[in-house]
């Protein structure tokens, strides 16, 4: 079996495991970044695209999830989980989205 066939199958398997509510709408994805193949072959095209605001504007993350991903460093996250202000599930979900 050719590596490209295996690669496509594995990408499809991975894609199927991502919950639909965690998927970024295509309208939010800069051109040339819609697929891994496009991302690799068009790297110069999006090299200067600023994607920093996408998490804040895409609507996938709640206010609490944005706080988790933007306001804490690793020590702060660990402290907040130890103090029961955050759960491991909340932190994991925020970063997975």
UniProtKB/TrEMBL annotation:
Domain of life assignment: Eukaryota
InterPro entries: AS_sf
Family: Belongs to the amidase family.
This protein's name: Amidase domain-containing protein
